[in-house]
Amino acid sequence: MLIPGPMAQSEALRALSDIRSVIDRSTRYSTFSALSGFLTGVAALVGSGACGYYADFVGARAEDMNFVYVWAGVFIFAAIQHLLLTTLKARKRGEVVLSPIARTAFLALLGPGLVGVFLTFVFIKQLNFQFLAGVWLCLYGCGLWAVSFFAPTFLRWLGVAFMALGIVAWATGETPGRWLGLGFGCLHLVFAAIVRMRYRR
Question: Which of 8, 135, 142, 166 could make an S-S bridge to 4, C-beta 3.0–4.6 Å?
Answer without folding.
Answer: 8
